[in-house]
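Checklist before submission:
- one chain only
- standard amino acids only
- sequence pasted in full

Submission:
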Amino acid sequence: QVQVVESGGGLVQAGGSLNLSCTTSGRTFSRSTMSWFRQAPGKEREFVASISGNGLKVYYADSVKGRFTISRDITKNLLSLQMNDLRREDTAVYYCAADDSPSGAYSFSTVISPRLYDYWGQGTQVTVSS
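Returned file contents:
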């Protein structure tokens, strides 16, 4: 059974940092695109960042560019999201998502769609206070 588990969320003051982790088990996603999405109360789930299977292609939402960094350690089945200079508007539940297919580098328009992803975690809450 495939499991996707996020951790690392919490309460932080504006300007602070958090590092989110996503671990997978049950299969390997070493060649698959993986991404972070988030969903704030009353809003739709939105794309945050993605990384290709080979780790060479990354994309970020404009709202987090320059503040967030996505990375992966294939040897540990680990996906990470380093979040710096957090703002109140970053408050949301953050989800890790994995594409089932081994892939090359998708286009930006492809990775930002939740429909691409076959596996999702339960989410981890990030709350940024002023």
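Reviewer check: The first strand starts at residue 3 and ends at 7.
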